[in-house]
């Protein structure tokens, strides 16, 4: 794919580490102006050191008002990747209200909040845009010890569809990517134990977990004009896990 995002301003959340970090670097390679939001200062500093063209913003996305104000300062924004996420893994009966609130705040409410600001501006500017939400295979399949995480990603998929429905007439496309396990810090949390990993791997027809770059390729495709007729989709990057 010959991709260029020259002249486009792209906001990436959760860009301090993992998928979001490599995505920010890739989008910058494709000539986008990248605005990278994340929580931990030192990760953003090393990102900026690696690519000084990337603009960084240290922020806790759980703060509703601060997030809105910060995103407004970076407008105009043409594209958003709502990638920030957390996973609290525990048996259903042990999960707490705090676990629920944290997961929903970061995985769902922040998408709602940030996308509202950007979409409102895109509509006023009448220029269209593309939003990609990073969901998970866990949105559509129950996974042990993942009750809140699964529920949050199920909400991401439905939020994606309803945003696609309402924003489509304004030429704003909204899609999700739904990866299987990727061995980032989050992936290691659930799947570093070889016994647990084996149970999951046995359910993936391709017999392996996804690489960060494979998730990024799907996000880039959905952001780009190469997917100009695709909106409201949940694209699995799961080696066939959801097909079984
Ligand atoms: P990761 O390595 O843990 O990175 C998550 C990023 O989100 C970090 O930079 C983190 O900041 C940031 N973040 C978390 N809470 C935040 C908050 N309140 N405010 C601002 N930033 C916040 O995870 P990842 O594996 O790259 O995951 C990226 C996305 O992919 C998530 O939505 C995740 O659910 C999804 N996903 C992951 C997997 C997997 O197996 N890894 C599979 C399917 C889907 P800090 O640097 O401060 O921690």
From TrEMBL:
<dbReference type="GO" id="GO:0050038">
    <property type="term" value="F:L-xylulose reductase (NADPH) activity"/>
</dbReference>
<dbReference type="GO" id="GO:0005997">
    <property type="term" value="P:xylulose metabolic process"/>
</dbReference>
<protein>
    <submittedName>
        <fullName>L-xylulose reductase</fullName>
    </submittedName>
</protein>
<keyword id="KW-0560">Oxidoreductase</keyword>
<dbReference type="InterPro" id="IPR002347">
    <property type="entry name" value="SDR_fam"/>
</dbReference>
<dbReference type="InterPro" id="IPR036291">
    <property type="entry name" value="NAD(P)-bd_dom_sf"/>
</dbReference>
<comment type="subunit">
    <text>Homotetramer.</text>
</comment>
<dbReference type="InterPro" id="IPR051737">
    <property type="entry name" value="L-xylulose/Carbonyl_redctase"/>
</dbReference>
<dbReference type="GO" id="GO:0006006">
    <property type="term" value="P:glucose metabolic process"/>
</dbReference>
<dbReference type="GO" id="GO:0004090">
    <property type="term" value="F:carbonyl reductase (NADPH) activity"/>
</dbReference>
<keyword id="KW-0521">NADP</keyword>
<dbReference type="Pfam" id="PF13561">
    <property type="entry name" value="adh_short_C2"/>
</dbReference>
<comment type="similarity">
    <text>Belongs to the short-chain dehydrogenases/reductases (SDR) family.</text>
</comment>
<dbReference type="InterPro" id="IPR020904">
    <property type="entry name" value="Sc_DH/Rdtase_CS"/>
</dbReference>
